[in-house]
Each structure stands twice: as C-alpha cells, then as structure tokens.
Design brief:
3-stranded antiparallel β-sheet; single chain; alpha+beta
Length: 147
Amino acid sequence: MNLLGHRTLHRPGTVSGAATRTERTSADFLIDGQSLLEMLVKNAGGHSDFMGCFVSGYAESCERTRATLLDVPPENGKRVLLYICPECGDVGCGAYSALVRRDREFYVWENFAYQEGKYDSTSLEAVGPFFFESNQYKAGLFAASGF
C-alpha cells in the first residue's frame, strides 16, 4: 500500500505591465513522501505551473472535490482532475487527472493523463498505479483539503 500525504504549493502573484499572475495556495499530493505533481511533470515533460485541486479560499469547491475523490464507483471508477490551471481552473488550459476507483478496503489512483480539454488527453503510463488503505486515504484527503 502507498501512503497519501500533502504539502502546500504556493504560487506567488505578480504584476508586470498589463500582465498579472494570480497568487494561489493549494495542496500538492505526496505519494510515499514524493510530490505527485513532480512525478507527473517529469513524465509529461511540460511546465509545472499548476495548482492542486484543493485551493485555499475555495472551501465549497474543496468539499465537492473531496466528496468526488471519496464517492467513486467501485468497478469502473471516475476520472478526477488533480492539478488544474492556477488562473482559471479550466481543463482547456491543461490539467492532470487520474482514474480513481475503490474496493472495499482500498482506493486506487491509476491511468494518469495530461488533459487539454474534456476529450483530448495524453496517457502518462509511467506514473502509478497507487493503492491506498481506505482509512489512511480518507484522513489524507481531509488533511489536504482543510484550508
């Protein structure tokens, strides 16, 4: 079994002429102490300017995402966005997702992908699958989403 943890991702805000970059604080998932975002970016070969799906200041959104990560169908699972655009949160700007499924005693994150829209994705086969014991997984999600 893998261990699910988190760390804080902080993206400083900047203003340069007419261009602005929004400050964001979010959660980066740690799998066995390693940054999941770093694993995904290394495998995909792109930029790392993403925010985690649990974002400070967006409590209702964090609760919805946490519920989505907990209430997944047992057999087929559900694709969930884990890292999204830090400006708008739109999948069209690029996002990392995983197929999340559960069994009686554990949850699985697998079939990771980089998405640039609802139907346009690139599989990241070198990442995962990860298996989490149910109680530890739930505790990890509540800790990560507790902004």
